[in-house]
Amino acid sequence: GIFVTSFFGLTILWCIFGKVSRVLKFFSIWYLQKIKKCVIIYTMMKDNIEIILRKNGLKVTKPRVEIYKFLKSTYSHPTVEEIFSNVKQTIDKISYATVYNVLNDFIEKGLVKEVSTSEDAKRYDGHIEPHVHLICKVCGKIEDLYIDLSDVEKEIKETGFKVEDIALNVYGICKDCQSKAHHSIKSK
Hints:
Layout: H1 2-17, H2 22-35, H3 39-43, H4 46-55, H5 62-73, H6 80-88, H7 96-109, E1 113-115, E2 123-125, E3 132-136, E4 142-145, H8 150-158, E5 168-172, H9 175-187
Parallel strand pairs: 3-5
Antiparallel strand pairs: 1-2, 3-4
Helix pairs in contact: 1-2, 4-5, 5-6, 5-7
């Protein structure tokens, strides 16, 4: 209990100040990936969302606030249907058209990224900082991996190519599906 609380406090400081030793930084990143929630998400106030929307030239509406809040609070890379059913819990009279329109506005302003996978359904990511998507070819789950992509960007720029965005998707089989396959082979 005390270790987790202290470590969580240090993680908060790292998020805010960014000046912690390499070892502590490694454990902070590890901790954030395991928990998959950063304290910034939990402390994000409605006012902050409104400021973000206004800074991007968007009118503050309840659907925009709720959709943005949901996308920043999840790492599941939801589909439109999943976003709709989550937001419908707080906004009873929301429509699919509204969700699509809000998502298109967010994508256009760079607040949300569309994640392309081999599946038919588009998925959306509210975490726009550079990261890698690990996409399972069996179950379709998408996991985020936060690694430094600056070397990749640097190498690309050296070719004379102007980088506007980096979207790195790695396809494979997740631990859960590997474990299920291993267990089903053993039980035969």
